[in-house]
Write a structure and sequence with these properties.
51 residues; mainly alpha; 2 helices
């Protein structure tokens, strides 16, 4: 396994914010939760340094 050397707290923060926003969308507007999914996936991949 490779070490995570590109871990960025900025990307981790953006990932956490996008997860919270997506959960809020699931609670308050379930038909729109999919709008937040690209942000969750993108910031997760960036946080891990895969992109």
């Amino acid at each position: 396994m490779e070490k995570m050397t590109n871990f960025s707290s900025k990307h981790a923060t953006l990932f956490a914010v996008s997860v919270i926003a997506t959960i809020a969308l699931i609670i308050f507007a379930p038909q729109w939760f999919w709008v937040g999914l690209p942000f969750v996936c993108t910031y997760f991949v960036q946080m891990l340094g895969w992109m």
